[in-house]
Design brief:
77% helix, 5-stranded mixed beta sheet, 5 helices, mainly alpha
Length: 243
């Protein structure tokens, strides 16, 4: 394949851009904050489980207190009714029955109020546990949100760099003859590198010195003849290190 030395040297610029773009994409995919967020998964799950458990317990205690308070209200209303009836009763038998019921209601009210106090102590502990679970969950959520914000900012910055380099690559690729760039792309897709310079007797594609016979054959080849690295098969660009 024939290509002018300038065309071949353009491949080195293209390869450098491809290398930069690949590095940027790799950096985007391996942002350290991603690993930090993944590491928080267990902590987040534990904090959410604790929060949900504390919320269920607090809801249960609140419901128990609500039931007791409703019972106290019913007893109070019943007592008020009986007291009103007793105040106007003219029958000693009825008055005795009402007084007996009032005594029973007074005992029941006392029992309910004692139960309410017990439940309120349990509720206070449940409220404290809920507040702590809420604080822990809020803390880990804030840490995750902060990490995600750093990821978003880094992605935006890297995306701008990738876009800029990709645009520059497109302009450069348009200057390279079609058959040459097709070979370059095929090699890059297959072996990971499309072109590299020959620096002295070392191929930068393999980072190894060429054998004397290989080097002699390459140097004997016309400058506009495309040659390839014996070790990797990448296009080997000559003369670039002399500029």
């Amino acid at each position: 394949m024939k290509a002018s030395p300038r065309q071949q040297r353009l491949l080195l610029d293209l390869q450098q851009l491809d290398h930069t773009i690949a590095q940027l994409r790799r950096k985007r995919a391996t942002l350290p904050e991603r690993a930090e967020i993944a590491g928080l998964a267990g902590e987040i799950a534990a904090a959410r489980d604790r929060f949900m458990s504390a919320q269920r317990e607090l809801d249960s205690q609140n419901a128990d207190i609500a039931r007791v308070e409703a019972d106290i209200t019913m007893v109070r209303q019943r007592r008020e009714r009986d007291e009103q009836m007793l105040s106007v009763s003219t029958s000693s038998k009825e008055a005795q029955a009402l007084q007996g019921e009032l005594d029973t209601l007074a005992r029941r009210k006392g029992e309910l109020e004692d139960r309410e106090l017990e439940l309120m102590e349990v509720q206070e502990r449940a409220q404290a546990e809920f507040a702590e679970a809420e604080r822990l969950l809020g803390g880990v959520d804030e840490r995750r949100a902060a990490l995600q914000q750093r990821i978003d900012e880094a992605e935006q910055r890297l995306d701008r760099e990738i876009s800029s380099n990709t645009e520059e690559r497109a302009g450069l690729a348009a200057e390279i003859q079609r058959d040459l760039i097709e070979v370059y792309e095929e090699l890059r897709g297959r072996i990971g590198i499309g072109a590299a310079r020959l620096r002295g007797n070392v191929s930068e594609a393999s980072n190894m010195a060429l054998a004397p016979a290989e080097l002699s054959d390459i140097r004997a080849t016309a400058p506009d003849e495309v040659v390839f690295c014996p070790g990797t098969g990448a296009i080997l660009v000559r003369g670039a290190d002399e500029e």
